[in-house]
């Protein structure tokens, strides 16, 4: 495994494991398998309703807590400063953990205008030792600028929808300029038609790997941390196996050219989409 380094010195594995829809016994089993298959960063969320499965999975996995980077996320309904800390404590109890490595605001929900308050609560949680590093998801430059103006502290991470059909070049440039690590959610486009794209398939044939491996390798070469989800052990393993080949600049550019302005999988534009 290779690592990215956050501004606060924390090392993050370059690939993480997504857990959306991994709930209950089957979900817990898939997460344990992922850890035993080599994943060291696990991405969860209060709203995935799987922090319980995460806790069971961690207990059953054959690894020390200190070797893992565990993420959860605060839902918009708990953005009041006095509710946020309790919500994080509840996340911890469900996950059977003493601390999270990363805790993120899940959506900016700008019409509600509470994300600055929620950000202050995450900074409190960090001071209290509930979380090691704090970040956001789905934040646009205007939201990040506002956090900086209001608190003087920018997130360490911005987790955004990012895949070849929506490559987020402007947001990535902003994040890089502000030393914010970009994480890619739905890196495989939720296994949509993108995986049948002829250009991606041509490139996969050339390197004798799968389309998923080409996409995840492209993420790494962009300096992005992808968190693919896979219930199948064989997919978990191949998705991690992307450190032994390098895409040429020409192939990187061919993939960059696939991006489309309306390429989001579910048209969830953070300027207007809300989630609580
Ligand atoms: N912050 C946010 O707002 C936000 C939003 C969405 C997601 N996320 C996070 O990002 C994670 C990843 O995104 P996602 O789950 O939406 O989608 P994704 O990782 O892009 O795609 C998951 C789908 O791809 C399939 N898959 C995995 N590996 C494959 C392979 N090698 N070949 C073919 N298909 C493969 C999976 O199948 P099987 O599972 O059947 O193996 C599953 O159906 C989530 O799980 C969640 O942790 C965050």
Automatic annotation (TrEMBL):
Site for Lowers pKa of active site Tyr, residues: 73
Record keywords, A-Z: NADP, Oxidoreductase
Residue span, NADP-dependent oxidoreductase domain: 14-259
Chain positions covered by the region annotation Disordered: 257-276
Pfam family, one: Aldo_ket_red
Family: Belongs to the aldo/keto reductase family.
Protein name: Oxidoreductase
The organism of origin for this protein: Fructilactobacillus florum DSM 22689 = JCM 16035
Lineage summary: Bacteria, Bacillati, Bacillota, Bacilli, Lactobacillales
């Amino acid at each position: 495994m290779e690592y990215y380094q956050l501004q606060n010195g924390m090392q993050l594995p370059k690939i993480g494991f997504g857990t959306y829809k991994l709930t209950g016994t089957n979900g817990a089993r898939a997460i344990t398998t992922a850890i035993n298959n080599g994943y060291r960063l696990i991405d969860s969320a209060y709203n995935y309703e799987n922090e319980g499965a995460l806790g069971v999975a961690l207990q059953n996995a054959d690894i020390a807590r200190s070797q893992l980077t565990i993420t959860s996320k605060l839902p918009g309904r708990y953005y009041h400063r006095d509710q946020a800390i309790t919500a994080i404590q509840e996340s911890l109890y469900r996950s059977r953990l003493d601390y999270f490595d990363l805790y993120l605001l899940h959506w900016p929900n700008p019409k509600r205008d509470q994300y600055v308050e929620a950000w202050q609560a995450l900074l409190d949680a960090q001071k209290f030792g509930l979380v090691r590093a704090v970040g956001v998801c789905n934040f646009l430059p205007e939201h990040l600028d506002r956090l900086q103006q209001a608190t003087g502290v920018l997130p360490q991470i911005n987790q955004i929808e990012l895949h070849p059909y929506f490559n987020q070049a402007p947001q990535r440039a902003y994040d890089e300029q502000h030393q914010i690590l970009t994480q890619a959610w739905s890196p495989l486009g939720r296994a949509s038609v993108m995986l049948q794209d002829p250009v991606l398939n041509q490139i996969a044939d050339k390197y004798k790997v799968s389309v998923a491996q080409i996409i995840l390798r492209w993420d790494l070469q962009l300096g992005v941390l992808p968190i693919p989800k896979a219930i199948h052990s064989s997919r978990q393993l191949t998705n991690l196996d992307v450190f032994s080949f390098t895409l040429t600049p020409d192939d990187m550019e061919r993939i960059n050219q696939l991006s489309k302005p309306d390429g989001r999988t579910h048209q969830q534009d953070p300027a207007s989409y809300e989630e609580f």
